[in-house]
Write a structure and sequence with these properties.
It is a single chain. This protein is an alpha/beta fold and about 325 residues long. It is about 40% helix and about 20% strand. The strands form two sheets. Strands 3-2-1-4-5 form a five-stranded mixed beta sheet, with helices on both faces. A hairpin with a 2-residue loop joins strand 7 and strand 8 (about 160-165). The longest helix is centred in the C-terminal third of the chain and has 26 residues, at about 235-260. It is globular, with a radius of gyration of 20 Å. The two termini are about 30 Å apart. It binds 5'-O-[(R)-(carboxyoxy)(hydroxy)phosphoryl]adenosine and zinc ion. The site of 5'-O-[(R)-(carboxyoxy)(hydroxy)phosphoryl]adenosine has 20 residues, from helix 5 and helix 6.
């Protein structure tokens, strides 16, 4: 069963064809990162205009790479939220147009759910994927530019929100810290790169929020800003390493804690920040529960994860009509 996935929630225009929810036949991404980098962040109006320019070629490339015809497809999955309204609209309208023209079933996918489903995609680098299939119940840590959520997943499409950030998302904190240190945009990869040449020698606060599964990253962000403003930072590399460690220590500790408490079988890492090597290694090392992490390219925004999620939605009979609309503030649970 081949599903075409379409993703335009933020600044990547993406299309992919995935078979049976696990095998990637194609995964095309047109990134706008260079266009937004000159503004130091995403400009929504610019993003939606770029999606309009890129979407048709990207869908055509995904179909061609997968050597798939419209009649080979079993359905179309498209991100409906959360995300930027103008950006989401481009993907949703293209998906509806194709579904209508080709008589294909359509399903609307929650972007965060998509990030979790990146863990179902078989990585070509892993041995057969035998022991790497997600098993319920599981806890997923979703860390992206807009979210830091801890979610209990008891079955396909069954989510319980256990914790969330009370202020900045982890990715957002990385982006802001990077700006503070003059390391550029997007901040996550810039901080990670700079941290490689530094040591985490600078003391920064951790918000443990004991007794809750919630996160808070505005304190560590502001602490870093104060140190920079008062001229106390002599090495951006050390500052980057210290900041990275402060954020990741909290993410890892709280994730392992809640996964043990809930006696789950697995921990799944998801979202753009999941591509951070320290986070991946630290979590795997410190968790007594098996941890699954998507391949790097599947952590940041892509359409293969949307197609994978769409496959399981179709399996569960979740088909949407052509009245499907965007929901910019869509929640997972
Ligand atoms: O999931 P994603 O691609 O888009 C959203 O749904 O938001 O996540 C983007 C976020 C950005 O804030 C970016 O700085 C962060 O993920 N990120 C990273 C890394 N790569 C991307 N954060 C830390 N380390 C990285 N290597
Ligand atoms: Zn995302």
């Amino acid at each position: 069963m081949k599903i075409l996935g379409i993703e335009t929630s933020c600044d990547e225009t993406a299309a992919a064809v995935v078979e049976d929810g696990v095998s990637i036949l194609s995964n095309q991404i047109a990134s706008q990162v260079e266009i937004h980098a000159r503004y130091g962040g995403i400009v929504p109006e610019v993003a939606s205009r770029q999606h309009i320019l890129a979407i048709i070629p990207i869908v055509e490339q995904a179909m061609a790479e997968a050597e798939t015809t419209w009649s080979d497809l079993a359905g179309i999955a498209v991100t409906i939220g959360p995300g930027l309204a103008g950006s989401l609209l481009v993907g949703v309208n293209v998906a509806k147009a194709i579904a209508s023209a080709r008589g294909l079933p359509l399903t609307g996918v929650n972007h965060l759910e998509g990030h979790i489903y990146a863990n179902w995609l078989i990585s070509p680098n892993t041995e057969e994927g035998i022991d790497l299939i997600p098993r319920f119940p599981l806890v997923s840590l979703i860390v992206s530019g807009g979210h830091s959520d801890l979610v209990l997943m008891r079955g396909h499409g069954d989510y319980v929100l256990l914790g969330r950030t009370r202020d900045d998302a982890a990715g957002e904190a990385f982006d802001k810290a990077s700006r503070t240190l003059g390391l550029g945009y997007p901040g996550g990869p810039a901080i990670e790169q700079a941290a490689r040449n530094g040591t985490p020698a600078i003391q920064l606060p951790r918000a443990w929020l004991k007794g809750t599964n919630d996160f808070s990253f505005s304190g560590v962000k502001t602490a870093l800003l104060r140190l920079v403003e008062s001229g106390q930072i002599s090495s951006a590399a050390d500052a980057a390493a210290s900041f990275q460690e402060a954020v990741i220590e909290v993410l890892v500790t709280k994730t392992v804690e809640v996964a043990r408490e809930r006696r789950v079988r697995q921990i799944l890492l998801a979202g753009g920040v999941a591509s951070n090597e320290l986070l991946r290694q630290w979590l795997v090392k410190s968790s007594p529960i098996p941890v699954l992490v998507p391949e790097l390219v599947l952590c940041t925004d892509n359409a293969a994860m949307i197609a994978a999620c769409g496959y399981y939605r179709f399996q569960g009979g979740k088909v949407d009509g052509l009245g499907l609309d965007v929901i910019p503030s869509l929640k997972l649970a």
